[in-house]
Specification:
Structural class: alpha+beta
Radius of gyration: 36 Å
Strand order of the largest sheet: 7-6-17-16-15
CATH architecture of the domain at 38-82 and 114-295: Orthogonal Bundle
Number of strands: 17
CATH topology of the domain at 38-82 and 114-295: Penicillin binding protein transpeptidase fold
Strand content: 5-15%
Largest sheet: 5 strands, antiparallel
CATH superfamily of the domain at 38-82 and 114-295: Biosynthetic peptidoglycan transglycosylase-like
CATH class of the domain at 38-82 and 114-295: Mainly Alpha
């Protein structure tokens, strides 16, 4: 029986007694193995106790009232009018939500004000159950929820001391208090508590009452329930607790802050010895076991289960999706088990690829995300920020940076969707100026003046060859012809979720990647190409098990949400060109001996570098840049970083081992290829090659306008 309860004067103020052999005293007759009364007629005894429960309850209520100085008749009337177990709603103290990887490995617990993880009786050490009964309620198996003898004994001790030194609440009463009613110190509350405890004792088995109590009790340091306590103080499960550990924890609920072993090891040790003496007094342990247990040191191992989070970027993304569906309160304390799509091996490969490439302390940050094209399942989401290991900003899903030439893929897709043949449609590769206003200039931004990254130009160029060179000037003209709005529309259909307009308008520079997007945007969009033009919404959660053990089927977790974004013919044409780009264009450092397609990207002023690529099995995007500011990547390991350098290399270092052991497969042939339509370059496109020296030169190199139809292969 709890000595004084949580509200009583702490034992530390009454003085402690050093560890000693337990005094000889009358022992309660309990079976030390089963925690049930000894004897051959246990069931009959249980039935007789239930029949006399009402009588005992009335007597207990009268005793409580008498001790409190209230008339027994009034107390019984109170008992009769408000004691209805069915009409009460239990107080929800919640439980932690845990998140797991695709292989079942724990990623972490969503932080809550209280750490709680309910477990069954089979998942609790027998020692914690024995120790709790011995120190809190040694007549637990003999009374009917209210211990009249205990109440009387407590009353005598309190009168003798002239203050509250011993309480009379049983485990069942404490459970009722924790579950159903307030903790206010009034006679009415005590009477109601006794009544409900008696009724609960009749409705539940002792085993269930004890298990529920151990799952509800507060053990300090945000730990509610014995599983959370075991993890918090010893970094182990409740099932693994040994006798000294169990005795320490059993003594905490009386005054968790006073007996906190982290901050007050001496009082905690004394309290543990008190529990061990109580166990010896009740015959639960022998004298030899007692002497050995009291000599054991307190071997704490502070737990990190509820604080440590693996894969923090992905974990944060999952938490946000859960909050969108359930709300923050339920996510923090709803006791859910969340099973995700992440593959830990891929995570390690991603981190290894980044660290193996950017291995110096002053290197820029890098992020990588990998998605299954068929389902949209996120398989890896990693980011490394040198010198900022606890960066909380999700670079993969929240950060938005200019994607550079990776956005040309959407211009290409928009052109092919409109029937523009990338092999027979030519533009002039030369410095290009879009004069938005007649009176303007390049310096103040009133004109859009476009150059290539290396200031090299090739005259008349097909869209395909311009893609392989990542020619800004050709793509600036193409963007104007297919229109920026169409480029944005295609990007959204393929998976970009970032805002692409500026105050409702779409700027021409969108085709060169001037509008910031996230790595998740690009990975999802390029996965659409890998899936033959079918977009699959990024999926991080496969299954959610609610606190009651049921699987939430209404939220649609684990069901791919797919829809046609672009035609399979368009996806095939774009993929063939991007596949060639990996073989012989700007993305050659991404090649690793199996069919792969991708596009490099370098933002204006060289502040961001990207590689977005895919195989039929996996779509992966890599970003590199500084997080503290838009700092040019002009000197990283002695080179100016472009999308075709470190990003492409990181992509390869991840993809090659990730797909190791899987049979290489080619990109599928579409059932229907695009039908090319007659096309004429727009009014803003260059109509001649400025580098040509004579009219003859220009005439010989300029292609005729065509409306070729064909397979586009």
């Amino acid at each position: 029986m709890r000595s004084g309860g949580a509200d009583a004067e702490p034992a530390s103020d009454r003085g402690y007694h050093p560890a000693m052999s337990p005094p000889r005293s009358r022992r309660t007759s309990l079976d030390p193995d089963t925690l049930r009364p000894r004897g051959r007629h246990q069931r009959a005894l249980r039935r007789r106790r239930r029949r006399r429960g009402a009588v005992v309850a009335v007597a207990a209520i009268a005793a409580i009232a008498a001790v409190a100085g209230v008339g027994g008749g009034a107390a019984v009337l109170t008992y009769g009018s408000s004691c209805d177990l069915d009409s009460l709603q239990s107080v929800d103290i919640g439980a932690n939500t845990f998140v797991y990887a695709a292989n079942g490995a724990l990623l972490g617990s969503i932080p809550a004000e209280r750490n709680r993880e309910p477990v069954t009786a089979a998942d609790m050490s027998i020692w914690i159950r024995k120790a709790t009964i011995a120190i809190e309620d040694r007549r637990f198996f003999e009374h009917d929820g209210v211990d009249v003898e205990g109440i009387a004994r407590a009353a005598v001790e309190n009168l003798r001391a002239g203050e509250i030194v011993e309480g009379g609440s049983t485990i069942t009463q404490q459970l009722v208090r924790n579950l159903y009613i307030s903790r206010e110190q009034t006679v009415q509350r005590k009477v109601k508590e006794a009544c409900l405890a008696t009724k609960l004792d009749g409705a539940w088995t002792k085993q269930r009452i004890l298990t529920e109590y151990l799952n509800q009790s507060f053990y300090g340091n945000r730990a509610y329930g014995i599983e959370a306590a075991a993890q918090t103080y010893f970094s182990k499960s409740a099932r693994e607790l040994n006798l000294p550990e169990a005795a320490l924890l059993a003594g905490l609920p009386q005054a968790p802050s006073i007996f906190d072993p982290f901050t007050a090891p001496a009082p905690a040790l004394v309290r543990r010895q008190e529990v061990l003496r109580a166990m010896a007094d009740t015959g639960v342990i022998t004298r030899r076991i007692y002497r050995k247990a009291v000599e054991a040191p307190i071997a704490l191992r502070r737990g990190r289960l509820y604080d440590q989070i693996r894969e923090p970027y992905f974990f944060g993304y999952v938490r946000d999706r859960l909050i969108e569906q359930y709300g923050a309160s339920q996510v923090r304390s709803g006791g859910m088990k969340v099973y995700t799509t992440i593959i830990p091996r891929y995570q390690r490969l991603a981190e290894t690829a980044i660290r193996g490439t950017l291995d110096e302390s002053d290197d820029p940050a890098s992020a990588l995300i990998s998605i299954s094209p068929r389902t949209g399942a996120i398989r890896a989401m990693a980011a490394i920020v040198p010198n900022r290991p606890k960066n909380q900003f999700n670079l993969v899903s929240q950060a938005r940076r200019q994607p550079g030439s990776t956005f040309k893929t959407f211009v290409l897709a928009a052109a092919v969707e409109q029937g523009i043949n990338p092999d027979s449609t030519y533009y002039v590769s030369a410095p290009f100026t879009y004069k938005i206003h007649p009176a303007g200039n390049c310096d103040d931004g009133s004109w859009w003046c476009v150059k290539t990254y290396a200031n090299d130009y090739y005259g008349w160029s097909s869209i395909r060859s311009a893609t392989l060179r990542s020619d800004n000037t050709v793509y600036a003209q193409l963007t104007l012809d297919v229109t920026p709005q169409k480029v944005a529309e295609i990007a959204r259909r393929m998976g970009v979720r970032s805002q692409l307009d500026i105050k409702g308008a779409y700027v021409p520079a969108i085709g060169l990647g001037s509008i910031a997007v996230s790595p998740l945007d690009l990975a999802s969009s390029y996965a659409t190409l890998a899936a033959g033009g079918v977009y699959a919404e990024p999926m991080a959660i496969r299954r959610v098990v609610l606190a009651d053990g049921t699987v939430d089927t209404r939220a649609g977790w684990g069901k791919p949400k797919r829809r046609r974004a672009i035609s399979e013919g368009t996806a095939a044409i774009v993929t063939r060109i991007l596949e060639q780009n990996v073989q012989s264009g700007t993305g050659t450092r991404a090649a690793f001996g199996r069919p792969a397609a991708g596009k490099t990207g370098t933002a204006e002023l060289n502040v961001d570098a990207w590689f977005a690529g895919y195989t039929p099995e996996l779509a992966t995007t890599v970003w590199i840049g500084f997080t503290r500011a838009e700092i040019p990547l002009d000197n990283v390991h002695g080179i100016a970083v472009t999308g075709g350098s470190f990003p492409a290399e990181i992509w390869r270092l991840f993809m090659e081992p990730a797909l190791e052991g899987t049979e290489p497969s080619s990109f599928p042939e579409p059932r229907f290829w695009p039908e090319w339509k007659p096309f004429t370059r727009g009014e803003y496109a260059l109509s001649y090659d400025p580098s040509a020296t004579t009219e003859t030169d220009e005439t010989e190199t300029a292609p005729r306008e065509t409306g070729d139809r064909g397979s586009g292969r």
